[in-house]
Amino acid sequence: MSNSQPGANAGLLDSIKALGITFLALVRTRAELIAVELQEDRERIKEIFILSLVSALFCTLGLLLLAVFIVVYYWDSYRLLAIGGVTVVYSGVGIWTLIELLKRLRNNPPLLATTLQEFDHDIDILSKSHE
Minimal CA–CA distance to 127: which of 119, 34, 60, 38? Predict the structure, then answer.
């Protein structure tokens, strides 16, 4: 019987070692997924920021020139009405875009959502195999 214990201990140690290797491989895979997601999010945010800046610049220039055109066109007859109308329209668009921005920020998926979903999936699988 003493001969079977060293073999059983060796088998148990091998099983624990294999389990540890599997666990480390799983953690490594999830860490790689986190790194990929962070890289993708960083690139997406950079693209959105640059496009937003360029868009804001040219839209602002276009709207400014449109406002100047409207005010100059109606300068002799409806100067105050033209300035007031342009102000109301711009303020309305600004408020609407601010509301949309706040909605999108609230509905933005959390950072690393896919990774967290994969961790939940792993926990479910390990829980079922444990039972």
Answer: 119
* pLDDT, tens only, 27-82: 888 888 888 888 888 888 888 889 888 888 888 888 889 889 988 998 899 888 88
Q: Quick count: other Cβ atoms within 10 Å of Cβ 119?
A: 15
> What is the span of the domain harbouring residue 119?
4-130
Per cent of the chain over pLDDT 90 is 5
| Count of domains forming the chain | 1
This prediction has a pTM of: 0.47
As a whole number of angstroms, the distance between CA 107 and CA 124 comes to 27
Question: Cβ neighbours of residue 79 under 8 Å, at least 6 residues apart?
Answer: 71
103 vs 42, 84, 98, 113, CA distance in Å? Answer: 21, 29, 9, 19
Question: Residue 86 phi/psi, 5° resolution?
Answer: -60, -40
